Each structure stands twice: as C-alpha cells, then as structure tokens.
Amino acid sequence: MQENFKSGFIAIIGRPNVGKSTFMNRVIGEKIAIMSDKPQTTRNKIQGVLTDKEAQLIFIDTPGIHKPKHKLGDFMVKVAENTLNEVDAIMFMVNAQEGYGRGDQFIIDRLQRVEQPVFLIVNKIDKVHPDELLPLIDLYREKLDFEEIIPISALQGNNVDHLLKLLKKALPEGPQFYPEDQITDHPERFIVSELIREKVLHLTREEIPHSIAVVIETMKPREDSNAVFIQAMIIVERKSQKGIIIGKQGSMLKEVGQRARKDIETLLGSKVYLELWVKVQKDWRNRQIQLSDFGYREDEY
User: Fold this and answer.
1) H or E segment and range at residue 288
2) What would the pLDDT profile of 69-104 be if each residue is shown by its tens digit?
3) Confidence of residue 288 (pLDDT cuts 50, 70, 90)
4) Sheet strands (E) in the chain
5) Nearest-angstrom CA–CA distance, 19 and 192
6) List of residues 6+ apart from 149 with CB closer than 8 A
7) pLDDT tens for each residue of 28-65
8) Among residues 82, 103, 196, 242, which one has the fewest Cβ atoms lying within 10 Å of its Cβ?
9) Is 152 exposed, middle or buried (0-12, 13-18, 19+ CB in 10 A)?
10) Which pLDDT does position 107 carry in this prediction?
C-alpha cells in the first residue's frame, strides 16, 4: 500500500429511483445492488468497495429518503439519516429528467445539518438536452453550499471517472478497511435474496408493490456435485399477490426462478438449483418482529 493512501465511507443519498444502485453497480463493476424502476428498491445499506493503488472508496447505497407511510418506511428513512453522520463524504444524487421536487427539499433540509462535504450528482444527463441542465444546476446551487456539482450518466458512464477523482481528493488518509478483491460487505445470502426480489419487481411491475420480502431458507452445496442448492421463500401481504407471483400454472414463479438463477450462478460462480415458495404474511411491514426476521433490524444501524 502506497504512502498517503486514502480511504473512507461515502453515502449515496437521494430520492427513490434517481439511479443510486445503477451508479454503484457501474463503479464496482459487478451487480451488488438490485435495480428496478420502482421506488424504494434498496432497503438496507449496501456497501460497495472500490480499491485501487491510491484509495479505497466504500460506498453506502442508502434507502431513498422519503416520507414514511409504515414501519418499514420508518426503518428505511432512519437507516438513511443515521448513515449521514457516519461517513466522510456524501453524494446527493438527483434525476436530471425529473428536476427539482419537494422530495429533494426534504433531503436538503437534512443535509443542512451535516458537516461532511456534500457533492451534488446530477444523474441521467443522457436523458435531457444540455440546455436544460444549466438552469437545473443553478436552481440546486441556490439551495445548499455543495462541495462540487457533477453531472453524470451512471448508466452510460459519462463523467463517472471524474467524479471518482473528486471523491478521492475529499477522503482522509487512512487504512485499507477491506481486502482489495472484496467488493461488498454483504453476505452472499443477502445478495441472493435481493436478486430474487429484483426479478419479482421486474416481472410483476405495477401489480406487486413493495410488500414483498425474500427469505433464504437453505443455501448449501449439494453433496453429489459442485452445485449450490437454494430454497427461498417470497413473502407477500395478500392472497391476491400470491396468485400474481405464482402465475397461471406456476408460470410467473418459474420465470422468476429462471432469471434469478442466472444472476445467482454468475455471483457464486457455480451451478445453482433454486426452489421458490410464496407465503402470505398479512401486514408484515408494520410488525416489528417480522421486520427483524426479514433482516430489517434497527439495532444494527
């Protein structure tokens, strides 16, 4: 490790669906955060680790800050707000396509209280005309004293390298927290459950809101081969949702399983046997015991 090595934690914060997970996967180079066009896809802090000769950047992709409507929402906002006090720099990401909104002001009000440098990241610039960009940047500039304002496209990679250079400059000198080949601090079981949840969100679109959770019941090597055997339970709140996820003669569940298995095999580097069930647990998002069972534990944050 060279002298003057820098390391630190960077929170990625923003309204739901501004591209935080897309940015994380682009920078880390592997899929560690699930992507969906539905808001509030990310429920836990996901740490992505980027290491090179000069620095180690540890990204925390927080749940989108929003006004909570239930206990799970409370939990997600609490996680995001607590994260702001624990990091060395903050990336406030906004969607160039959507422009400034009330949800942004909700976040800016919270950013007024932090001492860490805040970088404004205007994402999805590939979706707007350059003439629209400058007035939008000026509008945000009036709202908060940002360290830097950087327009990017996380999807296409525009300006992402420049952003990484600026972030490295902002980090303190420090140790390498993770081995250089480690890209996330989440156990594989968590990422596997997230990949399954992503497929459900993609395939069901509007019919299934965020009232699903995925619990890995079993994940072990098969004795007769190098394959991994996984059993997972998809939890929904209503019987009608169970029917949608199973589909006609099990067609939807089969499709979810096939798509998830491909991503999981890439992640684990081995053949995977995946079994999925669907179970109804009414109103689980408002029950603290069930939130804890499904991995949303406040005491961890």
Assistant:
1) helix 288-293
2) 556 556 656 666 666 777 899 999 999 999 898 888
3) very low
4) 6-14, 46-51, 55-61, 89-95, 118-123, 148-151, 213-221, 228-236, 272-280
5) 21
6) 119, 120, 122, 137, 140, 141
7) 876 655 444 444 444 445 568 899 999 999 888 765 55
8) 82
9) buried
10) 87
Query: 159 phi and psi, to 5 degrees?
Result: 70, 5
Q: At 21, list the tokens.
A: 């997970």
Which range among 11-20, 28-37, 166-175, 214-223 shows the weakest confidence by mean pLDDT?
Answer: 28-37
- The rounded distance, in Å, linking the Cα atoms of 79 and 69 is 15
Element (H, E) at 71: helix 71-84
Query: Tokens in use for 150?
Result: 């950087």
Q: Is 66 helix (H, G, I), strand (E, B) or coil?
A: coil
Sort 194 into a burial class: Cβ within 10 Å, 0-12 / 13-18 / 19+. buried
Cα–Cα distance, 261 to 257 (Å, whole number): 6
Give strand pairing partners of 151: 122
What the block records as the tokens of 201 is 């969100």
What gap in Å lies between CA 199 and CA 285, rounded to an integer? 20
**Which pLDDT value is given to residue 198?**
86
The tokens of 170 are what? Answer: 């902002």
> How far does Cα 95 stand from its chain's mean position?
16
Q: Name the nearest CA neighbour of 247 among 208, 286, 192.
A: 208
Place of tokens 């060395």: 88
Rg (CA), the chain: 20
For the chain, domains (ranges, CATH) are 6-170 (3.40.50.300), 188-300 (3.30.300.20)
Q: Residue 183 in contact with residue 177, Cβ under 8 Å?
A: no
